[in-house]
Amino acid sequence: MPSVRRYETKDGRAYYLIRVRRGREKSALSRRWYVPDGWSQRAIDRELAKVSAEFERQVQAGEVISRDEKRLQAAQEAAEAAKIVTLRQYGEKVFMPAKTLTATENTRASFQGNLDKWVYPAIGDIKLPEITSAQISALLLDMQGKGKAHATVVKVYTILNSLFKMAYLSDMIVRNPMDKVERPKPRKDEIKPQTAQAYTAQEVRDILTALEGEPLKWRAFIHLRMDTGVRRGEALAVQWEDIDFQENTILICRNLCYTPGKGIYLDTPKNGRCRMVDVGEDTLQLLKQIREQQGAGGKYIFTQDNSLDPMHPTSPTHYFRQFSKRNGIKDFHPHKLRHTFASVAITAGADVVSVSETLGHSDTAVTLRMYTHANDESRRRASRIFRDAIQKDTQKDTPPPEKDTHKADADYNSTQQENLDTLRAAMIIEDK
């Protein structure tokens, strides 16, 4: 029997809530019946009995269903119409095609690779509405158990989050299983102490010294990246028409990329904007030498061996690895040149906004994180300043002799100037 209760709206209108239970597996359904004006209680009871009985019949016959059940039914009908049943089918026919409009080629290649390698083998053949949070969590835990890097596991989590969100918003599923999936955390054995993200002044000098015996194009490539902080693909995409030898500037408006599916291709810079960067005279001299060697007809500065085609985007990685082995330079990575530029420039007094513009960051916060992670000297200086402040506060009642104070300040200032001069000198290529 249905349960019936009387209620009133805020404006005093009476109505009855008719509620029919459907067992433990399904939620109860309810319907409101508003009392017509002027009805006696006897007439109300008689009509209410009829309405309740009819509503119960409709529920039992399946003629009335819940809102969620309606959405599920619509989603299933849509899936059937589109012949999309499994996660794999949805990924191939809807999710990845949609990404062609919103994601870069590199991002799409990364998404497709992770779907093919991790997602599809595990849950790709399960019907999309039937995939549970537990199954997704099991997939991520399995990846961690196999020793996969935390960044890889998080990337798969991000892809699945995007896929199921799209499916939910398009009514392909009633509930988003990712709502109950926790973002993966690093394994205890995977948490590593932070390593230096930028080169020290001595390391920069060692690199410049080692470069003297390297091929011209690699000397110019490393100098350009160290001198301007441009990304690898941005440096490889520079064409002769982008260089102004009179103004000592280079226009960064392209990015050279590579994916297995598309090969080598040109794209916009990461933030989607062109920018102008200043270049040192020594770097420009190296570029002029390349132009003389290359002769007429060349379009790109950095080309493949015995060809005028642009250098393959993976070539610098291979070269850096061999360069590091030959010269005994530990952890020689191209992106550290970018961190080094930010660290040295800000330490030497450049404002963060200007450095951010040069690096092509969309937000100065990114630049500050790069600088903070990279600059050990700044951290040490901050600690010294704190300790000096505490010491001065505790000794204010018994100040040291004036002569000693001046000497300490002079020594400190001298040290600070030496540090600054060293960092500046690290970025200067001396004429040989």
Kindly describe this structure.
By secondary structure, the chain is mainly alpha-helical. It is built from 16 helices and 8 strands. The radius of gyration is 33 Å and the shape is elongated. Strand 1 (3-8) and strand 2 (14-20) form a beta hairpin. It folds into 3 domains: 3-64, no CATH class; 71-190, DNA polymerase, domain 1, CATH 1.10.150; 201-368, hpI Integrase, Chain A. It is 55% helix and 9% strand. It has helices at 41-60, 67-81, 87-102, 105-123, 133-145, 150-169, 201-211, 216-228, 232-236, 281-294, 315-327, 334-347, 352-359, 364-374, 376-394, 402-426; strands at 3-8, 14-20, 29-34, 243-244, 249-252, 255-259, 263-267, 275-278. It has a 3-stranded antiparallel beta sheet with strand order 1-2-3, with helices on one face. Residues 405-413 and 419-432 have low confidence and may be disordered.
Q: Gap between N and C termini, in Å?
A: 99 Å
Estimated structural class: mainly alpha
Radius of gyration: 33 Å
Percentage beta strand: 5-15%
Count of helical stretches = 16
Oligomer: single chain
CATH topology of the largest domain: hpI Integrase, Chain A
- Provide the CATH superfamily of the largest domain: Intergrase catalytic core
Low-confidence stretches: 405-413, 419-432
What's the average pLDDT? Answer: 81
Largest sheet: 3 strands, antiparallel
Q: Output the CATH class name of the largest domain.
A: Mainly Alpha
Number of strands: 8
Shape: elongated
Named CATH architecture of the largest domain: Orthogonal Bundle
